[in-house]
Design brief:
Helices cover 31% and strands 0% of the residues. By secondary structure, it is mostly helical. The two termini are 26 Å apart.
């Protein structure tokens, strides 16, 4: 949230995924059609909890959620 607040207060431009379009009430999302892609991934602890480890394993196995 700190990054979003900084963007709002400084007037900076931020490129985000569409899923973030409603994440901050004072920011506006403008869709663009670019020949551009952004890799997407998961961040988790080097020593995840058992439930996080099961989730990661499900993703690796292609089972999804």
């Amino acid at each position: 949230m700190d990054v979003l607040h900084k963007c709002e207060t400084s007037g900076c431009l931020m490129i985000t995924a569409e899923i973030w379009k409603d994440i901050h009430p004072s920011l506006v999302t403008v869709p663009v059609e670019w020949e551009y892609s952004v890799p997407y991934g998961l961040l988790y602890s080097k020593h995840p909890t058992e439930s996080v480890e099961r989730f990661i394993q499900a993703i690796r196995n292609g089972k999804g959620l």
